[in-house]
Amino acid sequence: MIQMHMQQGLSPDARIIRQEVFVEEQGFHHEFDEIDSRAWHLVLYENGQAAGCCRLFSSDQPEVYILGRLAVRMSCRGRQYGERLVREAEAWLRGRQVKRLALSAQVRVRPFYEKLGFTASGDEYLDEYCPHIHMEKELRE
User: Fold this and answer.
1) Nearest 10 degrees: Cα torsion 48, 53, 59, 61
2) CA-based nearest residue to 125, from 108, 110, 104
3) Do residues 119 and 102 lie in contact, with contact meaning Cβ atoms separated by under 8 Å?
4) Burial 13-44 (b: 16+ CB within 10 A, else e)
5) Of 42, 117, 119, 129, which has the maximum CB count within 10 A?
6) pTM for the full model?
7) Separation of alpha carbons 37 and 127, rounded Å
8) For residue range 97-129, what is the model confidence (pLDDT) as tens digits?
9) What is the pLDDT of residue 121?
């Protein structure tokens, strides 16, 4: 059974998933930041076990939110949990009348976000030595 839980502030389950995926697996050093305390964190549970997460926070532009830190545990990949997290986040934001969703994607997963309707813009840039690209999507009812 799949369940989703949204909460403001970094939950222990989201912290564990991000530690495993971004710090231990991918080698990022600056995973946790001041945004975590004000962001909304969505966690996907499979049979009561935390499997994936992402965070959402408002940008400096009205009606635009940022999706970030999308992570699925290695043992849970291949089940479309990343897509389910993004779709749930989009639905939640539409309910809050958010018009656009932006993100900073690792270049290697750009096709994943394009499949979900995001469009890349600008040049690639490095974030902790990892190539990233800015992407956005209009949220329509």
Assistant:
1) -80
2) 104
3) no
4) bbbebbeebbeeeeebeebeeeebeebbbbbb
5) 42
6) 0.95
7) 21
8) 999 999 999 999 999 999 999 999 999 999 999
9) 96
